[in-house]
Specification:
- The chain is of the alpha/beta class and 372 residues long.
- The chain folds into 2 domains: 48-240 and 326-367, Stationary-phase Survival Protein Sure Homolog, Chain: A; 242-320, no CATH class.
- The chain is 37% helix and 20% strand.
- It has 11 helices and 13 strands.
- The chain has helices spanning 12-38, 60-71, 118-126, 152-155, 157-167, 186-209, 257-264, 267-274, 276-289, 332-337, 353-367; strands at residues 48-52, 76-82, 101-106, 109-114, 138-145, 172-177, 217-222, 232-234, 242-249, 295-296, 310-311, 314-322, 341-346.
- The protein has a 9-stranded mixed beta sheet, with helices on both faces.
- Helix 3 (118-126) runs parallel beside helix 5 (157-167).
- The protein is globular and about 105 Å long.
- 33% of the residues are buried.
- InterPro entries: SurE, SurE-like_Pase/nucleotidase, SurE-like_sf.
- Residues 49-241 form the Survival protein SurE-like phosphatase/nucleotidase domain.
- This is Survival protein SurE-like phosphatase/nucleotidase domain-containing protein.
Length: 372
């Protein structure tokens, strides 16, 4: 509402003084607002958590986890995840190529989607290029569909995200549900989040206390029926892995097979194209040395030989069910199948497993005892 002064009842000089005072007061208020706007935003006192995954930013497991972490408003949650499914990318990082990064929203949290691997996402997020914080208290990779046990951890992009965080000096967890195709459903993902939340909060609490194991990251497996789990066990990595099943693809049966790799624009194709002359020369030497050998031509290399001199074949690899499982007690895959939540410490080093497992067992006993 505008302020007015009636000149009829006041001395003109007094009116002038009042008007000047009102103008000065208005200018002072505006200056205060401007100064307040220029003040840096006060850093959040909540623990900062970074979430990534292997299945891509649109996966429901990621959304359910982020929503649950934000529900009680105790954490400052940020997300940096692959743009698409990179579940079996291992610990690969992208070099020599430009990554595209787009801002997004996931479950109410500020997020970035990256056209790279989970390891790329974590490395980029922790570099300080995307977020204003110096570093998070904890990095969580999950929630992912499909158990990551045994040697499958070496192929897993989700596990790589947690491993990259530990390499960068940040405690981390990888969380996966033992998803069964045609049996599990999205409600199981929500239940899995419910089961793993106490472990996450215990980890954050004890990281701040300085008593969380700092020589490993934790690979957490949630059993197929999360809410009926039999408890939590610290386990060891088993020697099992999924079978890598290579299938020959006939271009007669599947005409698109010949264009499959080229459509993917893989790094292997680009390298093959760059090394075309050298590869062709080497292949020519091999052909001349032994005419009976049959060359299997790389899809990315053209015009090496005529169709009478070479054979082109196409293959696709599929992961199949695990073979014979070890029956040794305490292994991650066996304990998970028995219905327990598994906590498997994974180190960056080949030795020290017993010491690491002992330290994790001690921490878990304290974390679950309720002692604060």
């Amino acid at each position: 509402m505008a302020t007015s002064v009636k000149n009829n009842f006041l001395n003109p000089a007094l009116v002038s003084n009042l008007q000047q005072a009102l103008i000065r007061r208005k200018d002072s208020v505006q200056e205060q607002h401007q100064n307040k706007a220029k003040e840096p935003t006060k850093a959040s006192s909540k623990p900062v958590v970074l979430v990534t995954n292997g299945e891509g930013i649109d996966s429901p497991g990621l959304t359910y986890l982020v929503e649950a972490l934000l529900r009680d408003a105790l954490l400052d949650v940020h997300v940096c995840a692959p743009q698409s499914d990179r579940s079996v990318s291992g610990h690969s990082v992208t070099t020599g190529e430009t990554l595209a990064v787009c801002s997004a929203q996931v479950g109410g949290a500020n997020a970035y989607e990256v056209s790279g691997t989970p390891a790329d996402c974590v490395s980029l997020a922790l570099s300080g290029a995307l977020f204003s914080w110096s570093k998070p208290v904890l990095v969580i990779s999950g929630l992912n569909k499909g158990a990551t046990c045994g040697f499958d951890t070496l192929y897993s992009g989700a596990v790589a995200g947690a491993r990259e965080a530990l390499i960068c000096g940040v405690p981390s967890l990888c969380i996966s549900l033992n998803w069964e195709k045609n049996v599990s459903c999205e409600s199981d993902l929500k239940d899995a989040v419910t089961v793993c939340l106490p472990l996450i909060h215990a980890a954050i609490r004890d990281i701040q206390k300085g008593i969380f194991p700092n020589n490993c990251f934790l690979n957490i497996g949630i059993p197929r029926c999360p809410l009926t789990n039999k408890g939590i066990k610290v386990t060891r990595q088993s020697p099992n892995r999924s079978s890598l099943n290579w299938q020959a693809v006939s271009t007669n049966r599947n005409p698109s097979a010949g264009h499959y790799m080229s459509n993917q624009q893989s790094l292997g194709i680009m390298l093959a194209q760059l090394g075309r002359d050298a590869s062709a020369a080497a292949a020519a030497r091999r052909l001349n040395s032994n005419r009976k050998n049959v060359e299997v031509e790389s899809i990315g290399i053209a015009e090496k030989f005529s169709s009478e001199q070479s054979t082109k074949k196409y293959f696709r690899m599929e992961l199949t069910a695990k073979g014979q499982q070890s029956k040794e007690d305490g292994l991650d895959s066996r304990v998970l199948e028995q219905g327990f939540v598994t906590v498997t410490p994974l180190s960056l080093y080949a030795n020290g497993h017993m010491e690491i497992q002992s330290s994790v067992s001690s921490w878990l006993a304290i974390a679950l005892s309720g002692d604060q």
